[in-house]
Every structure is written in C-alpha cells, then in structure tokens.
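re: that chain from earlier
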Amino acid sequence: MFCDSLARTLNCDIGIYSLDGKLIEGVDVGFKYTDNIFKDGSFTYLKVENMIVCVNKDLSQDACNLIKLYYENIKYKEAVNISQPLQYILNEDINEGKVLDKYLGCRVFYVKCHEDIREIIESIYEGERFETAEDEDGFYIAKIVEDVEMEANSLISGIGEEKGIELLIGAGGIINRSYTIKDSAAHSKEAVCLAQRLGFKEGFYSIDKMIFYKIIESSNKEKIEKYIMGSVSSFNDILHDKELISTAEEIFKCNLNISEASRRMYVHRNTLLYRIDKIKGITGLDIKNFEDAVIFKTVLSFCKLKLT
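^ sequence. v structure.
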C-alpha cells in the first residue's frame, strides 16, 4: 500500500528493503544501506524506521522528509484500524490483512434479534475474550470457540430465556489467512437469512451446513424446475399439506429415525408410517430410504427458496 501509492505520486520505480537488503515490496531498483539519506546519481536512498526506501529519482531534502511523514501517517491509520472495535472493522473499507492476527481462529455468530441484548451477551461471556457489533437486524459476536453448536445453544438458552423470544443464530467459518473477519460475518448472517427463507423461525444454522441450500439457490432454477416437472411433478400437492411437510422435516432432523421422530412429534409410530406412505403415494418417494429422502429434501428446499 505504502509503496504503490508513493510510486504513483512520484511517478517512478520504488523498492522497499529490509535493513539487510531483502526486497519487501515494490521494484528491485538496487539496494544501498544508509542511516539517513544517501544519493547516488539519479537514485535516492533513505531510511524510514526499519526499512530502506530506494527511489530511482533524484529527490530533494523536502521530498525525502515528506516521504517519512507520509509513512508515519499511514502507520498511524493502520494502528487506529487495528485498535478499532469490530463495529468499525465491519463497516469501514480497511486492509483486512492488518487486522488478521487480531481475529485469527475466531468465528463470527449472528443473532437475529431486534431487541437490545448487549447486556445479556456480556453477562454470558463475562471474563471471556469476545467482540460485538450490530446492524439493523441483529448482533454479531466474534470469538474463539471449541464447540460451535454448544456455543450457539448457550446463546439461544441465555438470550431466549431472558427475553422470552425465539432466536435464529447463524455462524460463519473460522477465520484464517484466506478467510477474513468480514467473510465470517457475512456468512453468519447469510446462514440466518437462508434459514428464514426455508421457513425456520428458530434454531442454529452454521454456514458449513447451509452449503447444500446455497448450491440449490445458485443453480439454474429453470432447468431444475423442468427436472422436477419431469419426475416429481406432483410435489406441488405436498407443499400445501403442512402436516406432511412438518412430518418429513422432523424425520430429517432425526436422521430418518422413525421412532425418535414420532416421540418428538408426540404421535404414534403407525401414524407417522401412514403419513410416510401418503408422501410416497403422492411423490413416489419413500423418505425412509436415504436416496429418496435426499431427493425429497432437495426438491422441498428448491420450492421453498423459489417461493421467497
């Protein structure tokens, strides 16, 4: 950043070297060490803190002083950016590489909530290292977590019980050298938005497990619709039967375990089997079977995303 903007300003080639002569940035114009300012023909060499700036241009003393001031100004701005809270970093256009180390290994959560829950979040994470930010729809939380689902559930129970509300929480990926704090924050909210479009009103949704839905959303909708019309065109009849849809979704949540699904839905196992047979009669898909269940879930997800 410093080298590029300086080269454009001076309209010449510039190389920035470490004190032992290794090129750090810019063009290799030739290194010469100096403790202050040194000129050699049409080249100027000046020491700026722990760097040697080499310029293939004869610069005046004033120009050299301005370069030093310019560097100090950039360094100050970067230091300010790094020290700024998450709110500033997410909203402003800054060099994310400069704040990478601050958030390396963190993950961003997004809590969809229009109520003020800052004090609750602070009480949940009292004594822990975390940062928060907010937008018009909810709150971002950046922190290092060991178990992402356990972390989300503690937020759901802590905030939900205190406020008496249903919560949707999303999580982005873990921040690394190629995946930034803004990436994780954007994906945490995107996971929540996808969950809403799919009809979910509460729960935890990690972007890691929403990839399936993103692929469907990004696919050619006209082609998919033609495939559906050619194979499971009767699926529209299912969409208007809330009982069958809720039954299928609960079975998916229970990993196709019929007994567990009937227990969670408080219905007899035979009632559930009757509904499964009814779904098969309409669509030809037996959702007790893994492959048929995948097809059913794919088509259902496509229809939900298409309608929103």
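The two ends are 43 Å apart (CA to CA).
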